[in-house]
Each structure stands twice: as C-alpha cells, then as structure tokens.
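> tool_call: predict_assembly(chains=two)
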Amino acid sequence: MNTHPTPIQSRLPSCDAVVEQAEPSVIQLALRDFAPFAAALIPFAMAIGTAASANGLTLPETAFGAVFLLAGTAQLAAVELIGRDAGATVAVATVLLINVRFMFYGAGLAKWFAGAPLRHKVLLAFPLVDQSYLCCEERFTTMTLLADRYRYYLAGTALLMSVFLSSEVIGYLAGPIVPAWMGLQLAAPLAFTGMLVKAVKSPQTAVVAAAAAVTVVGSSGLPGGLGLPVAILVGVFAGSRMRRAQP
Amino acid sequence: MTPLVIFGFAAIGTFALRVGMVVGEGRLARTARLQDHVVLVSPAVLAAIVASALSMSNGGVVLPDPVVVAAVGTGAYAVYRTGNVAASLLIGLPVYWLAGLAGLI
C-alpha cells in the first residue's frame, strides 16, 4: 500500500495539527475572551489621557494613576476633581465610593483561587477589574484546574493593563496636538454617556441617575468638589428608597 | 496635595477594597443589603459626571452648549440602539464635527 502523501495531502495540515488548532491553549483562550473588552477600552482610556492632559496633570502622574489605580471610571473622576482643585480627601473618597464594587469582585477571586496560598490571592487581586471579573466568572465555570486559572487570569489581565496604559499615554500625548475643532474635550463625557446608557437598566437605576444628575448641578456651590460624592450618595439613597417603596 | 499623592492614597484604598474580600473570604460581600446598594453606585457616578460636564464650568452652573448636548444625545441614542459603549464616541464626535462644519460652534 502506498503510504506516501499525495501532493494535495501534503498541503493539508496533519490530524495532530488540526487537533491543536481546534483546542486553543489557555493563554490563547484568555486573549480571545479578553480581546473585545480590551478593544472597547481603547477609546475610553484615550479619553482619560486627554482629560488628564487638559486638567494639567503630567504624563508620569497620569501613567501612575493608570497603573496603580487601575480603574478607569475612578481615575477619570479623580482627574476631573483634581482639575477643579477639589480637596484630596474628596477626590480619594470619591474614588473609593466608585470602586466599592471591587469588594464583590474580590469575593469572586477568593472563590476562583480557593486552593491558592493567601499571598498569591492578594497579588492576584491587584489587577482585578470589571472586565476580568466578567470573563473569569463565566470561563471558570468550566475551567477547574488551578494552574489553568492562573494562566488564564494573568494573560487576560496583562492584555487589559497593557492596552489601558498605552491608550492612556496616546490620548495624553495626542490631546494637546489635536486641533480644538475635533472636540477631544468631549471624549470623556461621551465615554461616560455610553457607560451610563448601559448602566440604566431599570426604572430604579433611572431614578438613581436622575437624582444624582440633579443633585450635582444643585450642589455646585458646595466647597472642595463635595458635589460629586454628595450626588452619588443622594442617587443611591433615592434608588434604595424607591426599592423599599415598591410592593 | 499633588495628583501623585492623591492617586497613591486612592490606589491603596482601592487595593484594600479588592483584597478585603479575599482575606475575609467574601463574608461581607454576601450580605444582600450591601449588594443592593452597590449596583446603584455606577449609574449615580456616571450621571453625576455627565451632568457636571454638560452644565458646569469653573465650579458654577452654566447653560449647556446645544451642540454638545446634541453630540452627547446622539451618542447616547447610538449606544441604546447598538448596545456598544464605544458608539457614543464613534457617533457623538462626528456630530460635533459636523456642527463645526456648519458653523454652529
């Protein structure tokens, strides 16, 4: 029997190769899952960079915020408050208020890496963000090996961090060069508007948003940029009252 | 206080929030009352920032620029229709540019 491959067979991938292509490695899987989130981060991170430049922050300060805070919404809020000369306490308190959701993500991480040493879990918590939580929460229902989870989580968060930081730096550098008619100062409000539309999912969240918007304008006279944290608290309070009032 | 110090404190606090549940094994996060309130924080933050960007300048209330309102409104509608958050930038900015070409800015 002739075992030599025909010219057509020699151009086809072997069965082993097909199997390898059909089963991506854990890292490939992570990159594939995180890629859409990373792509969506680009305009948002560029908007933060542009806002930081417009509010007088230096590039190292902006990059420091991006790397160590690793929370876009909170960083943008902090940048806006710094630009308005709000007090440091108000800026830090606002950031923490915005980031309180990370507590829940931490609970998720504790569950995913239940078998890992505590020092590993503490380090893994550093790059924990909305996108990594969403991806891992879904993927780890089927991915049970701890080593695979490590690789998946680290590869995905590395992708997010690198895209986030580089986009912020590009936005920062491009901000002053881009002519005024391009309206890059609008990038941040537009990015937030997009997120707001997605966040308002029910009458309750609509009430929260309306109450916060009215309060922030009404409390413009408050000193030290206190209007923003006050508006957040009033919005949350209005939403919780509405829930209580519902039968 | 410099922005670097503000970011530093904010980063330490944020890391504490991330790691708190890891050390506490998620006990606090399982309380339903806290969960109910935390989901309301995002819309409150976002609405407050958008409202202040549209209607405040130098700490005072100003009438929103109609062109900016049109750009933001169109961007919001684009996100509502497509479900894609980036659509607010992809549609809102061109609306602003067109208004500029039409001499409205």
